[in-house]
Amino acid sequence: MANEYEEQLMALVGRIDEPDHEAMAAAEKRQEFLAKVPGSLGRLEDISVKIAGITGKVKDNDLKKQCIAIFSSDNGVVQEGVASAPQSVTFSQTINFPRRITGMSSQAKYFGIDVLDVNVGVKMDIPEALCTKDMVTEDGRIARKIVDRRLAAGTKNFVKEGESMTREEAAHAMLIGFEAADAMKKAGIELAGVGEMGIGNTTTGSIMIGAITGVSADQLVGRGGGLDDEGLAIKRKVVGDAVERVKDMDTLGKLSAAGGFDIAAMAGCYLGCAKNHMPVVIDGFISISAAVVAYEVNPMVAEYMFASHKSTEIGYVAAIEKLGLKPMFDLGMRLGEGSGCPIAFKVIEAAEGSMSLMLTLEEADINGGYLEHIKEGHFLDDLDD
User: Fold this and answer.
1) What digits encode the pLDDT tens for the residues 80-119?
2) Helix pair 316-323, 285-297: axis angle to 10 deg
3) How many other CB atoms sit within 10 Å of the CB of residue 248?
C-alpha cells in the first residue's frame, strides 16, 4: 500500500508532459535559415532546439538567471570500507557551499550563479545559525543559508541492516527534490543544475545505475575519491551483491534498499524541473546516477536534461547511454558537487545567444543561393574540380 509521501510523489510525476514539438520544429526551421552554413554550429544548434521545446519559445529565451541545487547526505555503507575520505568531509563541504569557497561554489560566485544548498541527511549536526527552513527568502531570492530538510543522520548501512532507508523516507527525499525545483521556479530561475555532497555515494550511485541498466559491477565501479586495490575489491563486491538483490524492485524499492537520501532528492529535483518546464543540467557520476533513477520513474524527464561533462568514473558510460544523451565536454573532471554545471550553463547560453541574436538570411538581406548549393551537396563537385 502506497504511503502518503508516495501518493504525493506519483501525483507530481503525473504532471510531467511532453516538450513543445511545434516550437522545436520552428526552431529547426529557423536554424536552417540563419546567416550561416546549415549545421555549422554543430551541437549548439541541437541545444537551442531542445531549449525551444522546453520553454515553448523559439528564441529570446532569457537563461541568465541560474541556480545549482546541491543535496548533501551521508551514507551508512561507508562502514564497509568503500570510501577513502572520512564522513566529516560531507559536513565540511556542506557548510562551505554557502561561503562560495568549494570547487563548484567558487565558480558559481565568479559567474553570479545561485546555489541552493539542501541538507537531506548529513551525519554531523550543522549549527542552527548556518541553517534556514526556507528555500526562498521573503524577497524572492534563493536562500543563502543551508536549507534544513534533514531526514536522518545519514542512511543506514544496508549491508548489515538490510536497507538504507524506509520506502516512506525514499519518497519523502524525492519530494524534497521536487520542492527544490519549485523553489527555483518561484525565485525566477531559468536554468538549473543538480549536484551533491555525500561520502560513499559513488557506491550507492553505482548500485542504482547497475540495478537500472543491468551493467555488471566490474563495468561500474571505479576508485571514487581514491580507493586502493583492497578498497576497490570491497566496493565491487558490495555493489555487485546489492545490484543482484535490488534489480527487480521498483524505483522506490531500489532507493530504500541501497540508495541514498542525496540521490533520491536529486532524482526528485530532475523530475520537478521537468514538471516546471525548466532546463536542467546533469553534473558528473552521482548526478547522472540520480538522473537514471528519475528516468526510470518517467522517461520523459530526459527531454528536459542536458549532460555537462563526461565523468572519468567508468559507470558513466552506461548511464549516459541509458538516458540517450551526450556530454557537452570532456575535461577530465571528477570532483562532483555540480562543478560541471557552471561550464555547461555558458555553453547553453552560447546556443541560445546564436539562436536569438543571429539574423536569418532574409532579416540580414543576404542572398542565400550559395547555401542551397551547399545543402544539395554540390560543393563536393566543386572540390573534385
Assistant:
1) 999 888 999 999 999 999 999 999 999 999 999 999 999 9
2) 40
3) 9
CA-CA-CA-CA torsion sign (232, 233, 235, 240): positive
Tens-place pLDDT, residues 260-294: 999 999 999 999 999 999 999 999 999 999 999 99
169, 179, 337, 352: the active-site residue: 337
Q: Cell 521498483 identifies what position?
A: 250
Contact between 195 and 290 (Cβ < 8 Å): no
Rounded distance, CA 206 to CA 189, Å? 30
| Grid cell listed for 373 | 548549393
Is the separation of the CB atoms in 157 and 186 below 8 Å?
A: no
Q: Which three cell numbers, joined as nine digits, stand for 112?
A: 553570479
Q: Give the residues across from 240 on adjacent strands.
A: none
Rg for the chain, CA atoms, rounded: 22
**What's the rounded Cα separation, in Å, for the pair 162 and 169?**
15
Element (H, E) at 66: strand 66-73
The four Cα atoms 163, 167, 172, 173 give a dihedral, to 10 degrees, of 40
Residue 158: which H helix or E strand, with range?
A: helix 158-161
Examine the residue annotation and report whether 337 is marked as an active-site residue of this protein: yes
DSSP state of 300: G
146: β partners: 131
DSSP 8-state symbol, 340: T
Q: How far is residue 255's CA from residue 260's CA, in Å, rounded to a whole number?
A: 7
CA distance 289 to 210: 9
**Cell 541574436 appears where?**
357
User: How remote is the C-alpha of 164 from its chain's centroid?
Assistant: 22
76 CB-side CA count, 13 A: 19
pTM of the predicted protein model: 0.94
Give how far Cα 209 sits from Cα of 30, 82, 112, 168, 308, Å.
38, 17, 33, 21, 18
Q: Please state, as a whole number, how many other Cβ atoms lie within 10 Å of the Cβ of residue 208.
A: 33
